[in-house]
Amino acid sequence: MTTTESRPTAGPTEQDAAPLWRGRDFPLFWSGQTLSALGDSFSLVAVPLLVLHATGSVARMGLLTGLAGAATIVAGIFAGFLVDRVDRRMLLIGCDLARAVGYALIPLVWLVSPQLWPLYLIAPACAAIGMIFQVGYVAAVPRLVAPGQVTRANGQLYASYAAAGLTGPLLAGVLSAAFGPTAAIGIDAGTFAVSALGLCFVRLRAPAVAPVDERSGTPAARGNWTDLLLGVRFLWRHPVLRALTVLLSFLTFLTIGLTDIFIYHVKHDLGRSDGDVGYVLAAAAAGTIVAALLVAPVRRRLGFGTCWIGAYALAGLAIAGAGLSGNVPALAVAVTGYAFCTATAGICSLSLRQQVTPDLLLGRVTSAFWTLHSALGPLGAAVLTVAVARYGTAPVCLAAGAVCLGIAAVATLTPIRQPRPELLPVPPS
C-alpha cells in the first residue's frame, strides 16, 4: 500500500494570495452553484410547506426529511468510489441534470393528480444524487484554487449560497402563498439545468497520480465497501478528523430536523403565514453570509479549535432561544445566530478535510465522513419532529440546545481544540 504522508508548506505562496476571481473556472463554478443554491432555497421552503398544507402534520414532514437523510447515507457508500474514479466535472453535470428532471416531475405530477406519494420517492432520490454531487463538489474545489485559497474559496461559496438563500426563502414564501409550493419547486428544477450548463465550461486541474497497487503496478481497483473503508481508515488515523466525525454524528442527530421545527413553529405555534416562514429562513441566510465572510480571518486569528468549539457552544444557546421565542422577529434572531455558528464550524471542518486529505483519496474520505456523521440523521429527524408534536417546540429545543452545549464541552477534551491541525502529519493511506 502506498504512503501519502506529508506536511503542508509553512507559508502561503504568491499563488495562494492571488484573487480567487483570476481566470474563468472558479467564477463559472461559483456562478452556477449560486444559481443552484437559489433554487435549493426555494425547495427548502416549498417541499415542507407542500407536506404541511396537505397533511397539517409535523411528523409527516419529519418522515420525509428522515427518508431523504437515509437516502444520502446509502448514496454515501458509493459516492466516494464514483468521485475518485470518474471525471468529476462530468459527474457534477450528470447530478445536476438528474435533479432537474426529478424536481420538475413534482409540479407535473401535482398538476395531473395532487398526491403526496411522489414526494416520498422523488425527494429521497434527489437527496441521494445531491450527496454524490456534494462529495464531487468538495473534491473539485482543491482543483480550482491553490491550497492556501481553500478556506477563502469555501467562504466565498458559502457566502454566495447564503446570499441566494437570503432572497430565495422570501421569494419562495411569496410564490407559495400566491401560486402554491409546487411553483417554487419547479423553479428549483430550472436552476439545476442552468447550473449543469455552466459546469460544461469549467475546467479542473489535472489530478494527482492515481492510487497504485504495489503488487501489480496497475491502478488499484476496489469495490464500493472497500473504498468506503479506505476513507474510514483515513478518518480514524487522523486524530482531529476522527473526533470531528464522532461528535458531528451526534450533532447531526440533533440538528437535521431543526428546519422543519422552525417552519412548524412559525406556522403552528405562532400562527403566521408562508411569507413569514420565508422571512425567518432568509434571516438565517444572512447569518450564514456573515459567517462565510468572516471565517477565514477569524480562523487565522483564533485557530481551528476555538472557532469550531465556540461556534457549537453558541449554536446550543441559539437553538434554545429559538424554542423560547414568542414572535417572528425573536425567532429570526435566534435562527440567524444558529446559522452563523453552524456555517462557521462547517466551513472550518470542510476546509480542514480538504487541506489534509490527498487528492486521490478526497472523494472517498469525504464520502466516508458524510456517511458516518449522517448515519443518525434520519432517526434524529423522526425523533425530534415526533417529540415536538407530542411535547411542543420549547422543551425539545431547550433539550437539543443543552446537548449541543455538552458536545462542545466534550470537544475541548479532544484534538479538535488544536489551533493548527492542518500542520499535523497526514496519516498513511
Characteristic terms for this protein:
429 residues, mainly alpha, two-stranded antiparallel sheet, 77% helix, disordered N terminus
**Overall mean pLDDT:** 79
Count of runs of 4 or more consecutive helical residues: 16
Class by alpha and beta content: mainly alpha
Strand content: under 5%
Helix and strand element order? HHHHHHHEEHHHHHHHHH
**Count of strand segments:** 2
Radius of gyration: 21 Å
**Cα separation of the termini:** 7 Å
- Low-confidence stretches are 1-14, 209-223
Biggest sheet layout: 2 strands, antiparallel
What features would you describe in this structure?
It comes from Plantactinospora solaniradicis. Keywords: Cell membrane, Membrane, Transmembrane, Transmembrane helix. This is MFS transporter. It is a single chain. This protein has 429 residues and is mostly helical. It contains 16 helices and two strands. The protein has helices spanning 14-17, 25-55, 58-85, 88-112, 119-140, 150-179, 181-199, 224-237, 239-255, 258-269, 274-302, 304-324, 328-356, 359-374, 377-391, 393-411, and strands spanning 212-213, 218-219. Helix 4 (88-112) packs antiparallel against helix 5. The longest helix has 31 residues, at 25-55. Mean pLDDT is 79; it is low at 1-14 and 209-223.
Summarize the helices and strands and which ones pair or pack.
Elements: H1 14-17, H2 25-55, H3 58-85, H4 88-112, H5 119-140, H6 150-179, H7 181-199, E1 212-213, E2 218-219, H8 224-237, H9 239-255, H10 258-269, H11 274-302, H12 304-324, H13 328-356, H14 359-374, H15 377-391, H16 393-411
Antiparallel strand pairs: 1-2
Helix pairs in contact: 2-3, 2-6, 2-7, 3-5, 3-8, 3-14, 3-15, 4-5, 4-7, 5-14, 6-7, 6-11, 6-13, 8-14, 9-14, 9-15, 9-16, 10-11, 11-12, 11-13, 12-13, 12-16, 15-16
